[in-house]
Amino acid sequence: MTVLLVNPACLDPRVTDGDALLVPMGLFYIAALLNENRIPTQVVNLAVEENPLDHLRSRVIAERPRIVGFSVLNANRFSAMEGAKVVKDVDPEILVVFGGPCATFLCDHLFSLCPELDYVVKGEGEITFLELAEHLQRDEKHPAAMVQGLAHRGGLGKIVHTPERRPIEDLDSLPIPGRYFDFQHVSLSRGCPGHCTFCGSPRFWPGARVRFHSPEWFVAQLSLLEKRGINHFFVSDDTFTMDKTRVIKVCRIIIEQELPITWVAISRVDFIDSEILLWMRRAGCTQISFGVESGSADIRKRLGKPMDRERIVKAFALTVSYGIMPRAYFIYGSPGETDKTIRESLDLIMEIRPLSAIFYLLVLFPGTHLYQRLVDQGRLSDQLWSRKIEDLPWFEMDPDLDFDRVKTFGHALRKGFYSNLSDFAAGIELVDEKSLYPLHADFLSRLALTFSHGEYAQNPWVKKPMDTAQLLFERALGYHPDHRAFLGLAMLFQKLRQFDSAIATATAGLRHFKSSRDLNICMAVSLMNLGRFQDALGFLEPFKDNPEVKVYVDACIGRI
Q1: Which of 11, 87, 379, 480 might form a disulfide with 441, Cβ 3.0–4.6 angstroms?
Q2: Residues 287 and 366 placed together within one structural domain of the fold
Q3: Packing angle between helix 274-282 and helix 244-256, nearest 10 degrees?
Q4: In this protein, which residues make up the domain named B12-binding (predicted)?
């Protein structure tokens, strides 16, 4: 028996939301467990395909699976249902299974919309999916009744729900997905201690209890993936730093094993202190995202984030002081949002001085407290999701808000952040800890590149990005001879056509990194722009067999 696990495409095309193109971690966990139990399983990512349904059809024809499982979010539920039709069109005997948040929260509704749907795996899916597959493998006629955590069709069109499955107590009992698949999103825990009213996590992981992998299991996964060529990770825990002792143990193992990795994480401002930040930075953490949500204390309370303003400010200052980029999540268009609350958010932005920020329009999903409150009031029903929409913006249910006003809120927040970003970067204060000097240089040079050649270089609201980049590169080199800082500064001078300065910077860098191909190319290009082709050739000769370098070599020879 073969199984295909599918990540469907979202309803709306994605331009900037890269996360929407990624396979959810849960599919890799399920696939790894099935493979360990001798049920061959492959993961299919339709989100990256130009013609998703055609691709699915060809895979089903080629693999002839017994089961096709779809990971269903609100945004991709229609693609999942269309995919189910494709599967049944190829072979009506293939069983179609839905799982994931949308399938869990809209279970009966999806059965009513999708006649091709056979089973729904509710909540945590590994053991439920494995037991279902094993029963089917033994050709048992009524496997659904024997498997906890399932929903299926019963007699007279009734949807039957089997008993709820208890959460997996020992997450380390699951096989490491990195043995079978390549991916960058990893997690140490399942669940969240928070009660955000806009988030479905509390209901998807019920009981307000967080379960953890051991530090050893978690780092073993990182190590396996690093050996497969992956060296940057997105730690996707809702609150990664909740268990301080466990996180520090993770960091210690990464350092002891000298894993050459970098990673980013998500946390809360009330789970951060100097000790954990020091260990995280030393272990490769480069960014922590915090859900600030709003500058209004009243709105934070309505959203389930009643954090003290002072704690928010302290967390951002502390994070950046250890050379970790603090990223802020803000939500706008919330219940009670006004021009005044937006000004409060702008004031908080000026106080916390984030170096990255994401601004989200508040939208409603099944499984969240805000959505359920409207359902309980009789203002919404699950029938809403028969419409071809990915989500429901809060403002559509709020008589005090409308699209134009909410759009203005978002514009004000983004402009306020980006137009002050150069000042935030210029005012960075780092802890004076000599052991961190190389990491401070790394941090400053990474940030500088976003101003010289990255996102911030292209944003019209960012003031004097090249001046900011130069300042950051030079500050980086004041801490440590950082390769990225030498190269970035030399490239910046090239971009400004200040070739003598670029040559001086590259010369200084080559004293420390003589064999750096990039620095040698940078030097050669600057010399070529000054007509010094013979000199340039000397820096290119050691790398002349490289196709990229050969172009420059040929250009020099042609001009000598």
Answers
A1: 480
A2: yes
A3: 30
A4: 8-143
Q: In 3D, which of 233, 209, 211, 208 has the Cα closest to residue 222?
A: 233
Predicted local confidence at residue 16, as pLDDT: 60
Domain assignment of residue 107, given as a range: 3-161
Beta strands 95-99 and 119-121, pairing class? parallel
Q: Is 464 within a domain?
A: no
* Residue 17 pLDDT grade (very low, low, confident, very high; cuts 50, 70, 90): low
Domain identity same for 131 and 227: no
State the burial class of residue 173 (Cβ atoms within 10 Å of its Cβ: 0-12, 13-18, 19+). Answer: exposed
Which DSSP string do the residues of 471-489 spell out, in sequence order? HHHHHHHHH---HHHHHHH
Q: Cα(107)–Cα(160) distance, rounded to whole angstroms?
A: 11
Burial class (CB in 10 A: 0-12, 13-18, 19+), 260: exposed
Q: Which two tokens stand for residue 291?
A: 């859900």
Question: Are residues 179 and 74 part of one domain?
Answer: no
pLDDT tens-place string over residues 375-390? 999 999 999 999 999 9
**Measured between alpha carbons, how far is 527 from 200 in angstroms, rounded to an integer?**
57
Beta strand residue intervals within 396-472, DSSP E: none
Residue ending a domain, among 405, 426, 447, is 426
Type of residue found at 80: A
Q: Could you tell me if 101 and 196 lie in one domain?
A: no
Cα–Cα distances (Å) from 513 to 231, 439, 452, 534, in that order, read 22, 17, 22, 22
For residue 443, is it within any domain?
no
Domains identified in the chain, total number: 3
SS3 call for 134: helix
Neighbours of 259 (CB within 10 A): 19
The total number of residues shown for the chain amounts to 560
Q: ∠ at Cα 460 (454, 464), nearest 5°?
A: 75
- 194 contacts 271 by C-beta, under 8 angstroms: no
Assigned token pair, 335: 């219940």
* Same-domain check for residues 176 and 141: no
319-359 pLDDT, tens digit each: 999 999 999 999 999 999 999 999 999 999 999 999 999 99
Q: Are residues 92 and 120 in the same domain?
A: yes
Residue of 177, 176, 206 whose CA lies nearest to 191: 206
SS3 288: strand
Q: Is 514 exposed, middle or buried (0-12, 13-18, 19+ CB in 10 A)?
A: exposed
